[in-house]
Fold this protein.
Amino acid sequence: MGFLFKAFDAIQFLVIIYIIVYRILLPIEQDLDFVGKQQREIKQIGPLLDKNGQLVESGWSRHPLKQFNPEQTSFFNRFLRLKQWEYFHISRGDIYFGISFADVSYAQNIQFVYFDQVRELLIKKELAPVKFVHQAIVMKNTPFVQDQYQYEFKDSHNQVKFLEYQDQDYEYREIFVNTHTFIADIQIKNSKKHDSMVIVVPINEDGSKFYYNVKSYGWDVTGYISINSVRQELYNTTAGYDWGRGVFDYNTFWLWMSGHGVQDDHKIAINLGGGFAHKSSPATEEAFFYDEKLFKLKNLDYIYDDASSDKPILVISHNRKKDHFNDKSNLKQGDFYCEFVPTIQSVHQKDFIFIALNMKQQLGYFSGVYFDGSSIIKYTNILGMIEFNKSKW
């Protein structure tokens, strides 16, 4: 018995050391300085990782070109550090709905958030599939639809169903959520020709920790959302898709800014942020979408106060001021200005011995300007969200 007490004391000591070193002494680095960052475009199809589990090449592309195989990562990374998710988000201009299916190596998770600007209503829900009780979420190695896939989560109070399939030209997803008082029945369709914002970036120096991400916008949506039997049809609605696979550091920071919608019969989307990549990373995920085309952004300054939930966030091309965008003679191709005004905030926090999740989402509206070299493209009140993640996971 004395041996057991000594072993228990040793475990307590290790836990205390862990808390001191990882939870207190090691800060979460926050870096959004992208000015001067090269934007290397990937053009070759091939494997994401080499035989040592390190990135073959880094950069950005308009379509997913790299094949991800989690078996090429180390045993430790695969079972503790590998994070995988698929996030679908829809915007009608006054309604936002997002649902994520995630696997963080040691647990799976389903979350959804609903925001109604007119009714000033925020609904969020988190579900945790239990192994051997619920169907496991299959994390595909590709963002493309391949074989038909169907998933269902069900307990006494909630039901989530997901279906995906394809034909020659389009991919289709169907999402159904029922919590008795909240029902979402959504159909999403996307052209295989759409541009996407794809990044492959290292998180550490040798690329054994990495982030492979695909963000797509402008997908067509039909369906409805019903709350307490009050039904909202999804007209003039677009969908976005966030597919992520990565081996992350224990201390993680990112800022993600995402908005999309329809304005003057054109589909518009904004994708900004970063903070997760190593300083050697040759690309960022900053992009502006106009209809099916992606315009890659670079050299942007971020002006924000993450301690305040009600202050606007400004993103603007380096060495530009807001009044420069009143006259295109002051601009050069690719100049960009964006202001995000938050209206409501959702905070997701969990604190365990080894895990400290701190994720803040702000829902609100994007307005700004993009100059394509000949025309000034203005957008106003595009519904979207920003996400601050400062987690130890």
Observations:
- Helices lie at 2-25, 75-81.
- Residues 3-9 have pLDDT under 50 and may be disordered.
